[in-house]
Amino acid sequence: MTLHLRARRVPLALAASVGGAALIWALWLALAKERDAILLIVVLTIVLMVSVLSTTLAAPDEDLERTASLRWPWRRALHLLAALALVLVVLLATVPTDARFGPAALVLRDTAGLLGLTALCASVVGAARAWFLPLGWTVVAALFPQSSTWGALATWQGQPHTSRPAAVVAAVLAVAGLLTYAFLGSARRD
C-alpha cells in the first residue's frame, strides 16, 4: 500500500493540498476583519485542494494497473472518497477557529462536485490535465455568479449553499465522475 501511494504521489499531494489550505487559512486569520471566510475564498480553497489532489488519479504506468489481477473499481472509488474526506476534514476543522471556512453544506457540495468533474476529466483527458476544466470553470463561476435558474446551473460553484440548482449539478457531477473514474480509470497516455 505504501508503494502504491508513493507511486501515485499521494504524500506530496497531501502536503501541498493541506499546506495550501493552511496558508490561506492563516492569511485570512491574520488579515481579515471578519471571522467567516467569504464565499469566493472558500470556493477557491476547495478548487486549489481538488486540483492538487487530481495528480493522484493516475499512476506512472496505467497499463500496468489495467493488467493487474487486482479489482480496481472499488479502489478508485475509495481513492475519490478519501480525497473528499480529506478536503472536508481540513476545511471543516477551521469551524472552531477564528477563521471559519464554511458553511459545511457549501464545502460538501463544491468538493463533491469538483472531485466528480475532475474524475470525469481524468477519464477523458488523463490525470495530468484533469484540473484544467474544474479550475477554469470555478474561477469564472466564483467571480461572476448568476442569479437566474440557468445561471445558477452554469455557475453552481459560486452559488450560496442553499441553492438547489447548484446542489443538483454538483450531485450529478459527483456521481457521474465517481462511476466513470471507478470503472474506466484515468485515460491512457500515448
Describe the protein's architecture and organization.
With 190 residues, the chain is mostly helical. The mean pLDDT is 90. The longest helix is centred in the first third of the chain and has 22 residues, at 10-31. Helix 2 packs antiparallel against helix 3 (39-53), helix 5 (73-92) runs antiparallel to helix 9 (164-184) and helix 6 runs parallel beside helix 9. It contains 9 helices and no strands. The two termini are 27 Å apart.
Distance between the amino and carboxyl termini: 27 Å
Quick check: average pLDDT? 90
Strands, count = 0
Oligomer: single chain
- Count of separate DSSP helical elements: 9
Detail the poorly predicted runs: none
Helix content: 55-70%
**Series of secondary-structure elements, N-terminal to C-terminal:** HHHHHHHHH
Structural class: mainly alpha
Q: Quick one: biggest sheet?
A: none
> What general outline do the C-alpha atoms trace?
globular
Radius of gyration: 17 Å
- Percent strand: under 5%
